[in-house]
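chain below, 68 aa
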Amino acid sequence: MQRKSVVLSLVLTFFFGPFGMLYSTVPGAIVMLVLYVALGIPTLGWAIAGLHPIAMIWGAWAAHRANG
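prediction:
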């Protein structure tokens, strides 16, 4: 199995949100994409401010676990 970079995961998720999570976790990326849409639309995008750090942490954690 190929090792995954935690730093690259953080950078990709920072710039591309859930799409950047595809590098480290496909199921996590799908969950976060659904949450971004489901919560972002009714709150006019304000929920994304809270979801984005969660996505970054989840992506970094998934990359770290893939190496272990």
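The chain is about 75% helix and 0% strand. The mean pLDDT is 96.
thats it, cya
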